[in-house]
Specification:
Blueprint: H1 8-13, H2 26-37, H3 49-52, H4 54-57, H5 64-77, E1 80-81, H6 97-100, H7 103-106, E2 111-116, E3 143-148, H8 166-180, E4 187-192, H9 202-213, E5 217-220, H10 226-267
Parallel strand pairs: 1-2, 2-3, 3-4, 4-5
Helix pairs in contact: 2-5, 8-9
InterPro entries: AN11006-like (IPR038883)
Protein name: F-box domain-containing protein
Organism: Heterodermia speciosa
Amino acid sequence: MESSDSNPTNSESTPPRNFRFFNLPFELRRKILSHLLLQNRIIDLDPANALSNPARLNLFLTSRRMHEEAYHVFYGIHTFRIFPIHPRFFGSRVKSILSRLPPRYRAALVSLEIRLGTGWSKPPKTWTVTNKLGLQDCTRVRNLEVFVECDPSHQIFHGFRVTIDFFTEFSGSLLESIVKHMPYLDWVTFNRHGPSVRRDSELMSRLQEAVLKGQKKIAWAKDKWADDEEDDDRKTQIGRVLRSDLLCMREAIRSFTIEEQSTHHADE
């Protein structure tokens, strides 16, 4: 007589055993959560959030322990934008996503970004730095990325800008306030949309001044400013050639003058 354990009907009806997620090593749990929660974009106020976020963030509601581990991962692997850039969120009563987060969520952030260029002729009134924004709670953020979309001081904006230095001063003052409210910040990395934003422009000089005033270090996004460096190298090489040609011309003129003077004295 066969035992009940060998009966295929009984084995198929046996319910599966529960998977004990928290029995896994912490590093492995964190890696799994990173795959589940990762979004390949910068987190900001966006109408599309209602479609993409809830399904992922429902994981926070599983249990208190899951919430504690998941929120550290979610806020630690994404870059959050300080001020919204979607026109829908330019209203005077709209809070940025950073100010909406509880202090413990802000304390879990490791990367922030500010994008300069949106509303360059009339920046949103909510783009101001106060304690309510919560930058002082972002104690783990060591690097701030400043993405510059455009430089309105360029001649192509002539006739559309407020004044030639309006956006330059606005951006510099804003970055200066941000750096001041982030004492734990070490680096500010500059990025740009395209070659229209020059590294040696008045805008970039003002932004660098704001960073150095806050005693922070400056970095440049890799491969984004290579054109400027190539142009600088090309200008340096051209300058060297011109200086060399000028020296040769001066020497030739000097030799010719001496020869003329010698001939003149000989004739006398």
